[in-house]
Amino acid sequence: MFSDATIEQVNDAMIQSGKAFKTYSKSSLEQRASLMRAIATEIEALGDALIEVTMRETNLPEARLKGERGRTMYQLTSYADACEKGDWLEARICTALPDKVPARPDIRKMLVPLGPVVVFGSSNFPYAYSTAGGDTASALAAGCTVVVKAHPAHPETSAMVAGAISKALTTMEMSQDIFIHLNGASHAVGEALVKHEQAKAVGFTGSFTGGMALFKWANQRKEPIPVFAEMGSVNPVFLLEEKLSSDPAGIAKMYADSISLGVGQFCTNPGIIIGIDSAALQAFISFLGEKMDAITVGKMLHQGIADAYVQKAATILQHADVSIVSSSVDAASLLAPRPIIASVSATAFLENPSLKEEVFGPFSLVVVCNSAEEMKAVAAAMDGQLTSTIMATENEALANTEIIDLVAEKCGRIIMNGVPTGVEVCYAMQHGGPFPASTDPRFTSVGPDAIKRFARPMSFQNYPDALLPDELKSENPLMIHRIIE
Amino acid sequence: MFSDATIEQVNDAMIQSGKAFKTYSKSSLEQRASLMRAIATEIEALGDALIEVTMRETNLPEARLKGERGRTMYQLTSYADACEKGDWLEARICTALPDKVPARPDIRKMLVPLGPVVVFGSSNFPYAYSTAGGDTASALAAGCTVVVKAHPAHPETSAMVAGAISKALTTMEMSQDIFIHLNGASHAVGEALVKHEQAKAVGFTGSFTGGMALFKWANQRKEPIPVFAEMGSVNPVFLLEEKLSSDPAGIAKMYADSISLGVGQFCTNPGIIIGIDSAALQAFISFLGEKMDAITVGKMLHQGIADAYVQKAATILQHADVSIVSSSVDAASLLAPRPIIASVSATAFLENPSLKEEVFGPFSLVVVCNSAEEMKAVAAAMDGQLTSTIMATENEALANTEIIDLVAEKCGRIIMNGVPTGVEVCYAMQHGGPFPASTDPRFTSVGPDAIKRFARPMSFQNYPDALLPDELKSENPLMIHRIIE
Questions:
Q1: Do β-strands B411-416 and B385-391 pair in parallel, antiparallel, or remain unpaired?
Q2: DSSP states of B73-99 as a string?
Q3: How many whole angstroms separate alpha carbon A428 and alpha carbon A5?
Q4: Chain B: residue nearest A95 by CA?
Q5: DSSP letter (8 states) at residue B105
Q6: Who among A413, A428, A452 is closest to B92 (CB)?
Q7: Beta strands of A299-431 (E only): which ranges?
Q8: Scanning B230, B287, B390, B485, which has its CA 20 to 30 A from the CA of A193?
């Protein structure tokens, strides 16, 4: 039913996208925002039919999908608002200084769109990071056309959402080539898209292996292009003693909920928890195991993800130094793997780098340190992360800045006394982080700043006002924030 | 006298830089700004002795070097001002919304430094893009430590400037490891620096070959790191008829000066000029040839650059379709090659991609089109550029938006009725452009926005005010611009 695009279809899509870019890149901020709002409206209009299809394709429950649909619409409309507000344009005006030696001409700068963006749908967010998800919304706001490769795990969902975008383009009387939808279970489709000369940037959320393949293809091109690949992480949680002692059961409950949320299929799932050995830590571990045993999780997204979960968890559990705290793999029902809590000494953890690897699913490894020094060593040994969390009283945090600095150096978002799951769509969100969490720590894929991934600054020197884009005209007709020098 | 750093010295430098980063990354904006101003003061204190050494090492004349020294000091002090002003931090505050479902925690974001930055000194800007140049100033402002590899063409100049930085660090009572200076004529030194795990970003201004070597090394690492390589371009100039007819001699004079400025050794040198065949264009070509013949240029930076100029110009002049308009290569004095103007038909230009290549030096190729359509084809065929220039009356520009759009799509800075040489150090400057002008069109190496190359956004979630950096505290003690949501 959903056959892969041929190489000819990929080439044709990229060429059409390049042609549509000539016009769409000139659209006003208001036109882009209207298109994005129209897409949100059309997605809503798909109603329960969309939810039903996605439930069947992803095993995700109705409430989660309705929430994610709302989030997807919010992304579209809030990025539309941000697009119109124009802070992302980084508009700067340096007026002429004829008396300076040498004379300074009038120079004005703003961000302009990069060109056609190739977006890869993710499996774990069938709406919010797929067809009309955050990457597509960012690209459209930037003034870029989009070619989406649907995730093969939910092709029907993707086709329905693509249909909604097509309707919105019709309503807006805009070219259908502004958004092109392709299927591609084969890697050849992705490779052809990324390597096509019309492609100017890539957006991706998924596995390390997948993201790195795109990154390598992009850098093998005659003209390398930016790839923003968000490749997940283990999101370490550091438990400081005073805070932990105050409520080990409450913290265990909070973490059991976070680890099992969405069957652990979030890139911000807390996969490693680090504490210093004490009665409180032992109580926490025991509570966490009990809470997790009591949680019934749903099916995973698809058999491939369930198989990978079982296999990766088994690899970690096979280590001689790792102990299972709770649960066991339910071999009879691999689509509904049990949540797993395990523990290991910091010494063994530091000696076995493979224990730092992400197990995508409801799995968490507690690392037991024998001192604050050992906790620092673990913090220093962590790879780049999307998030890291510190559980500490305020006094404890103020007394442990050294460990907090080590943790902060390795992550895009640092959380105090909370859980990493739950990624707010807002201006202050950084979703991305030092490699391998993402391919470029200087960008985010969540929040309106995500638009900047797909735009580049351009200076206009000695331009008469009539020729300048509205964003840079002297009278500031769009009323946007600009730095004037 | 200036021997290459050994691999052990490179490793040691990077490790020391990594250690110093732990402290320097925590310095206040004011401390960084004070350091940068102190460096400018120490460079000035080197006085004429510095100018004399650089004249000997680079063949550049006194007036040019004094101007460049002033520009270098201005970069340091104006980026220091920008560092303190804090716009580059992109601070955003999203306060908690406890009544939202799910509740939104307090989230605040700002840019934080990437880590130790490796800076490669350029040959053509011995001050402004070398040891204490724009890359070093950007990195220090961002809160990054710096390891500079001196350009082997001016090692004594580089050592003197490094000495000035060392003095400034002493005055400021800061670690000497914040800035480390190494020599390396061998590529092995550069490769070891870029591939060292402590290196977190690279800044470079120079040739395509050099920039791409760094880019590849950076992407071969286990942890790829961002490289900003500004690799030059041919900076095409498009002459529209009405404007050209109004003053062919004046425009020719303006361009003869721009092409020969600094013996053509600027990355913004106008290397290709495109016009539509007419009496005015023929008059322009003839005037340009005459003006160039009358110009006496100085020696080039070093023998290698002079040899490359002669060889690259000869390669272009050997094309059967290319005619020499003015001058000839003076084989007797290769260090002072003559300026060269040549011309070619657009048909031949479009058929021979090698004619698009940069000839670093006082060389320009006039491309003669037989129609506006052919000019569009030439515009579409251009590679990515640092700058492109349009010479047009306002009416002509308004009537030719199609060609201007084609030109704009390929460049970082578009100039109306001016010359591309002369890169203002200001907020609105974009110095960078679509590949191959630079490795990432989303960043600039000139102007305070250059700081952003070496910083990454970081979110602080649910942080008590006492633990937040001053930049994000609720009372805004640093009085910086922040987006509040």
A1: parallel
A2: HHHHHHHHHHHHH-GGG-EEEE--BTT
A3: 38
A4: B428
A5: P
A6: A428
A7: 323-326, 340-345, 363-369, 385-391, 411-416
A8: B230
Chain A positions touching B411 (Cβ under 8 A) are 458
Do β-strands A107-113 and A91-94 pair in parallel, antiparallel, or remain unpaired?
Answer: antiparallel
Q: How far apart are CA B1 and CA B9, in angstroms?
A: 16
Query: What token pair was written down for B223?
Result: 């942890």
In Å, the largest CA–CA distance within chain B is 82
CA atoms within 13 A on the CB side of B396: 16
pLDDT in tens, chain A (485 residues): 789 999 999 999 999 999 999 999 999 999 999 999 999 999 999 999 999 999 999 999 999 999 999 999 999 999 999 999 999 999 999 999 999 988 999 999 999 999 999 999 999 999 999 999 999 999 999 999 999 999 999 999 999 999 999 999 999 999 999 999 999 999 999 999 999 999 999 999 999 999 999 999 999 999 999 999 999 999 999 999 999 999 999 999 999 999 999 999 999 999 999 999 999 999 999 999 999 988 888 889 998 999 999 899 989 999 999 998 876 555 445 566 789 999 999 999 999 999 999 999 999 999 999 999 999 999 999 999 999 999 999 999 999 999 999 999 999 999 999 999 999 999 999 999 999 999 999 999 999 999 999 999 999 999 999 999 999 999 999 999 999 98
Q: Kindly list the structural domains of chain A, giving each domain's residue range(s) and its CATH number in brackets, ordered by start.
A: 7-231+438-484 (3.40.605.10), 237-416 (3.40.309.10)
Q: Which of B78, B442, B446, B449 to mutate to test the interface with A (most CBs of A within 10 A)?
A: B442
Nearest-Cα distance to chain A for B14, in Å, is 17
The tally of CA atoms less than 13 A away on the side-chain side of residue B272 is 32
ipTM over 0.90: yes
How do the residues of chain A divide into helix, strand and coil, expressed in percent and rounded to 5?
A: 45, 15, 35
Amino acid at B252: A
Is B458 an 8 Å CB contact of chain A? yes
Where does residue A430 rank: exposed (0-12), middle (13-18), buried (19+ CB within 10 A)? buried
**Residue A428 is which amino acid?**
A
Interface of B with A in 383-412 (CB under 8 A): 384, 394, 397-398, 404-405, 408-409, 411-412
Terminal-to-terminal C-alpha distance of chain B = 58
Question: What distance in Å separates the CA atoms of residue A78 and residue A36, rounded to the nearest whole number?
Answer: 9
Structure-token match 């000091």, residue found? B73
- Is B455's Cβ below 8 Å from some Cβ in A? yes
CA distance A209 to chain B (A): 13
B450: tokens are: 């250059």
Measure in Å the smallest separation between the Cα of A98 and chain B Cα atoms.
13
How close is the nearest chain B Cα to the Cα of A3, in Å?
34
Which chain B residues are closer than 8 Å to A227 by Cβ? none
Mutate to test the interface with A, among B456, B481, B484 (most CBs of A within 10 A): B456
Q: Measured between alpha carbons, how far is A475 from A472 in angstroms, rounded to an integer? A: 8
Neighbours of A121 (CB within 10 A): 31
